[in-house]
Amino acid sequence: NAIIITELPYQVNKASLIEKIADLANNGKVEGIADLRDESDREGIRVVIELKRDTDPDKLLTKLYRLTPLQNNFGVIFLALSDGQPRQMPLRQLLQEFLAFREETLTRRYQHELEQHENRIHLVEGWLQALDNIDAVIEILRAAPDGSTAKLEFQNQFDFSDRQADAILGMPLRRLTGMERQNLENEFAELSESIQQLQTLLGDRKELLKALKKELRGLKKRFGDARRTRIIDVPSSGKKRKAKPPVNFGTVDTAPSPAAAKPSATSTDTTAPTNRQSKPRQTAPDLELTTEVVEDSPPDTVNTDGTINFAPIAEVTAHTMPAKALKLIPDEPDGTPVVVEFLANGHVRRLTPETFNADDREFGDEIITQTEDSQIGASMTVLLKTGKAYNLVIKSVPRIEIEPEGLPITQLLPPSAQNDQVISTFSLPENLDEQFVILLTEKGRIKRLPASELSELSNRGISMIKFKDEDALAFTAFADAGDQIVLATSTGRILRLEANDQLLPASNRAAAGVQAMRILKREQLVGLGVTGTVDPVLLVSAEGFAKRLTTQTIKLSQPGELGTHMFQFSSKTDTIVALTTAFPEDIVNLQTTAENQFELCVDDAPLASKEHKGERIVDLEADERIAAVYLPMLMAEG
Hints:
This protein is an alpha+beta fold. The protein contains ten helices and 32 strands. α3 packs antiparallel against α7 (178-203), α4 packs antiparallel against α5 and α5 crosses α6. Mean pLDDT is 80; it is low at 234-328 and 633-638. GO terms for molecular function: ATP binding; DNA binding; DNA negative supercoiling activity.
């Protein structure tokens, strides 16, 4: 038997490796090596390790991996420029950024070629027209006292452009021959065909990607060589992995091990079981128990052959499930429809569509601010005040039967995010390439981020915006190109921007955005609305006044302006507490400082001008004020 080494890890010296293996063999740390030879030549590396009889090569190789640099781990920082900003990216995103860069480069190249061809065909077209009217052209040249007069006469009589007229004046006499005319006609036909092809490539992204693939295949054919490294998927310690094969918790062999059958030396009750397997389990084919196992973490481990090793009860401390979670509730397979409810106190829970739409369902004092139709196996996106985005796995959201009041959203996120504040939660739209996320900070900076940046969230989350001067995220919303973005401050100033590439160019996650609105002292942003030009927005004041404004009545502004004062207060102490979209028959929930709750149909607020102070929508006590306004609740479909 022999082990033959034909390649080495990055930056590993062959001579040092051979010396290390020889030292281990001589010192007795590695047994079973009979001979060690270096047979490397100009064709490649070849180190031969001859083994003694009865030596297991797999065990020896495992020991060599552990004791020598034959196997080596090293970190790689994938740092690349994206939109002019240096960013660290995972391998997949790095490749995607490269493809996006190649697509952009190809687009610019085709645009340049199209511009060159259009300029050339413009001149050729002028020459051909001059040849068609050669007698009149010669007559103008004979009669003109100078070139400027001839040029002006060409433009007046034949409608030539400046460039065409100059080209005709500079045309040599050989252009008048029949052969030159044929060459010009052939060139005109070729340019016309080329322009049509370039316009097709620039107007149809599928055709552009086909051209990109063809170019990449050509590069591969010219410069490609055999791959020397392999990318393999190896589960690492501490990472989550699926337990395979699936474990049926109702039919597990629970025979206790001899060690588990012995009584504890410190226990006085020798009849108490020291292993959970010694106690009969209730058979339940479908329990709501996760099949995800964190290696080296849980007290119970699932082996690769499907068997389960249970730890003694005395060892199960922080890893045990809450008592409520141990109810025998049937598991929900992936694809099962559910409704996710988000509450005003920051909690979240899930329930079945039947429970959600039940006529006899009783509601407590909680305010449901948002509902989402989803399914088991899906996830939602959570944006936090620090500007980070995380995945909220729907299956991790507690069922209403187990946690009637739900759990805090942050409790379902990684530990690093559990002290943060949730700004928004949403499901990603299907047309990610056409949607943008609007991010608005407390200090008035705004950013238009492609929604595709949220498509690949990791467990550690990703930062969606770079803050300046101790800023924080305040509001988020989705917007299409051309949508109207409306901002409001507590003093009643309102600013309207249009979501387009001129005013708000799309930027990457590392960008800080632009100043959308100047925030004055003793005021703050209170709302962000995304609407059409004819849609209304709702303004609510702290003293219980409200009115609606049509978006088109708000002046369209440039980023960084002050905005327009659009609310006349009844008293000097009143302020705006919220701005939100106001579609017909929407219901808005109001909460006061005295913890009273009111519902407002947006149709009850008058549609008024900027000089109008609004109408009182709720009667408040002397010291009571509107504290919060919650957006319309989205109803789930049955």
